[in-house]
Design brief:
Number of helices: 7
Structural class: alpha/beta
Shape: globular
Number of strands: 20
Distance between the termini: 40 Å
Order of helices and strands: HEHEEEHEHEEEHEEEHEEEEEEEHEE
Strand content: 25-35%
């Protein structure tokens, strides 16, 4: 073969690889983030207020994402005024992350946050406004409150739509499925990729399974995560990112779209139980095409110890947990989802 032909073949292969890479979007997603709290006192904050150090072991993974998502479990506020009333302090906590911790989120690589959850309102409307202002000041996209239900933004020529749902007062309701469908349909009309966050499901190690029915916890309807996820995809969502149970749950591929039913406690520095399975969480690096179709993913296993930074778990414990839950809760996925030993996730119809 002549040099000219060799060059032509090389140029074709290079351009094919370039086009493929350009058409692949990467979404890095984690669950609950609570970087310590100044309430009831500052002993629950990391040393020297160094919140960024809590992410240092995993920052290199975040750098791979077009989108880096997390659930902000608490308020970014420097004031303890308007703290919520707790009738039973043993099961009721208020999380106040200093506003300067917003810089740590940005430095770690986050550019998208869910603020629809049961702790965003821990310090009332003033705490919500402080959270919103802090995220805006750090150029981090967010949504999930009735006052800011959705967000749309463009990165590298791709327009994303984002909405967060929860069962809590002041958030976009996860229990009003008809209204939720309407929101998602509207986003799908104008956006290339629609990402849905759901803070739903009962809490604790007893609630690792997806039940396919409404879940109640402490007298509150926490939603039917299975029904909700499927109907959001039917309405036009491309990725469903779940959290709320404080443990990891199964994944599912539905209509070529990725669902994480719960991503657990990713980085919850203090006042959150991280013993046993509660301290194990995934980092999902999703690869989708520009239509939202799932291509592949990598599950990086992490673990926490109380009062320490999140670390990569070389024993890959949560990988095995999620694999077992997936095949238990979704037996039809056994022949379709393949979990590799190093966390690779592939899908075959």
């Amino acid at each position: 073969m002549s040099k000219i032909k060799y060059f032509a073949v090389f140029a074709f292969l290079f351009s094919s690889i370039y086009i493929f890479a350009g058409d692949t979007l990467r979404i890095v997603a984690v669950g609950d983030i609570m970087m310590g709290t100044s309430y009831p006192d500052r002993s629950f904050l990391p040393a020297n207020n160094d919140a960024y150090s809590l992410f240092a072991n995993v920052k290199s993974i975040f750098e791979k994402g077009n989108i880096v998502f997390g659930n902000l479990e608490g308020a970014l506020t420097d004031s303890h005024e308007n703290v919520k009333s707790c009738s039973n302090p043993s099961i009721c906590y208020a999380f106040a992350m200093p506003t300067e911790f917003g810089k740590a989120l940005k430095k770690a690589g986050f550019n998208l946050m869910n603020i629809a959850n049961n702790h965003t309102g821990d310090f009332g409307d003033a705490g919500k406004q402080s959270t919103v202002s802090t995220l805006k000041n750090n150029k981090i996209h967010f949504a999930g409150l009735v006052s800011c239900p959705t967000d749309t933004f463009t990165i590298d020529g791709v327009k994303y739509g984002f909405v967060g749902f929860a069962p809590n007062t002041g958030t976009v309701s996860v229990n009003d499925i008809n209204a939720a469908e309407s929101i998602v349909r509207q986003l799908a009309k104008t956006c290339d990729i629609v990402i849905v966050s759901m803070h739903a499901g009962a809490e604790g190690t007893k609630y690792q399974h997806v039940t396919r029915s409404s879940e109640t916890f402490l007298g509150e309807n926490r939603g039917n995560v299975y029904q909700f996820a499927h109907r959001m995809i039917d309405a036009g969502a491309d990725v469903i990112l779940g959290h709320g149970p404080h443990v990891s749950r199964a994944i599912e591929i539905y209509k070529d779209r990725f669902i994480a039913y719960s991503m657990g406690n990713f980085l919850t520095y203090s006042r959150v139980n991280v013993s046993g399975v509660s301290g194990l969480a995934p980092i999902y690096t999703l690869e989708i095409d520009k239509t939202g179709k799932f291509l592949r993913a990598t599950l990086t296993s992490t673990r926490q110890e109380k009062g320490k930074p999140v670390i990569i778990d070389n024993n890959k414990q949560v990988l095995e947990v999620i694999k077992n839950l997936t095949f238990s809760d979704f037996p039809d996925m056994k022949d379709k989802i393949v979990f590799g030993q190093n966390g690779e996730i592939t899908y075959k119809k």
